[in-house]
Design brief:
By secondary structure, the chain is an alpha+beta fold. Helix content is about 50%, strand content about 15%. It is built from 5 helices and 5 strands. The chain has a 5-stranded antiparallel beta sheet. It is globular and about 60 Å long.
Length: about 180
């Protein structure tokens, strides 16, 4: 159970602060159930409600700063999303995004950065679906990391890309090492 005043991630609402845990006096709400009253940080004045006893609520505590730094070190090892059927691509993105799992958000970003680079190299633009999910994954991941690290959300893309490139550097160093050993 979450506590009043705590910050959580709730579905696509992003970071929310729990303003209250109460019985709702709203038409259609089960007045015997306790509800979390959430205030999303990205939409001022908005309220979100969900039952305390709801299973699979896609809600979790905001990661700690220590977990955020650990994630950055983990970035190179997180694999892209492999989609063998193009018709299922959007569903794969949607499931990963709705999971509230920040590692899945990274997987979406890595997949879409790679697709964008490939399409750009072919002289093409990124598709509308890819663009939409790229934006949603960036908003979710960058928003949470910026929040816990005390940074501006706009600073996060170059920061994340820099950490992702560590993987490319390691791969290139390993290739050079292997090539040198063969010569």
């Amino acid at each position: 159970m979450f506590e009043k005043g705590e910050y959580i991630i709730y579905g696509r609402s992003g970071i929310c602060q729990i303003e209250d845990i109460t019985h709702l006096n709203i038409a259609g709400a089960d007045q015997k159930r306790l509800y979390y009253v959430l205030a999303p940080l990205n939409i001022k004045g908005n309220k979100v409600y969900f039952p305390v006893d709801k299973k699979n609520a896609n809600a979790r505590r905001v990661i700690t700063e220590q977990e955020a730094w650990a994630l950055l070190e983990e970035l190179p090892g997180i694999q892209e999303i492999i989609v063998s059927n193009e018709k299922l691509r959007e569903e794969s993105y949607r499931q990963a995004l709705n999971s509230c799992d920040y590692r899945q958000w990274v997987a979406i970003l890595k997949t879409l950065y790679q697709r964008r680079n490939l399409r750009t190299a072919q002289g093409k633009k990124i598709g509308a679906t890819d663009e939409r999910y790229l934006k949603m994954a960036e908003d979710a991941l960058y928003g949470e990391l910026a929040f816990v690290m005390g940074k501006n959300k706009a600073e996060m893309e170059p920061f994340i890309v820099q950490h992702m490139k560590k993987d490319d550097t390691k791969k290139n160093d390993k290739k050079k090492e292997m090539t040198g050993a063969l010569l």
